[in-house]
Amino acid sequence: MGKIYQVVVQHERMLLIDLCNTEEEMQRLTVGQLKEKILEKLPELEGKLTNLCLIFGDKRLIGDTSLLSEYGIQHMSSIHLIVLLLGGGPQPR
């Protein structure tokens, strides 16, 4: 049986996210694909894909087409998930 490449996502609770089965697939995974896999584990966030902010180390993962490997993310890396809340401005009169 092959290796399953995973990352740990820290949110309200720790999530173990299965990404792929080979190093080659791991090198081609994008930020957007990771967000989709997170939504599979957290269906309550459905429809909030654009509100998901992922942070690895001191870097925000920007651009859904960016490769995880460009950020140095590898098997069992720990990624923080923040759900951005829209609004907060003054109330309309």
Note down, in words, how this protein is organized.
The chain is α+β, with helices and mostly antiparallel strands and 93 residues long. It has a single domain, classed as Ubiquitin-like (UB roll) (Roll), CATH 3.10.20.90. The protein contains 2 helices and 5 strands. The protein has helices spanning 23-28, 31-41; strands at residues 5-10, 14-20, 52-56, 59-60, 78-83. The radius of gyration is 15 Å and the shape is elongated. The termini are far apart. The mean pLDDT is 91. Pfam families: ubiquitin.
Corresponding CATH superfamily: Phosphatidylinositol 3-kinase Catalytic Subunit, Chain A, domain 1
Strand content: 25-35%
Q: List SSEs in N-to-C order.
A: EEHHEEE
Estimated radius of gyration? 15 Å
Give the N-terminus to C-terminus distance in angstroms: 62 Å
- Annotation field: number of helices: 2
InterPro entries: Ubiquitin-like_dom, Ubiquitin-like_domsf
Organism: Poecilia reticulata
Protein name: Ubiquitin-like domain-containing protein
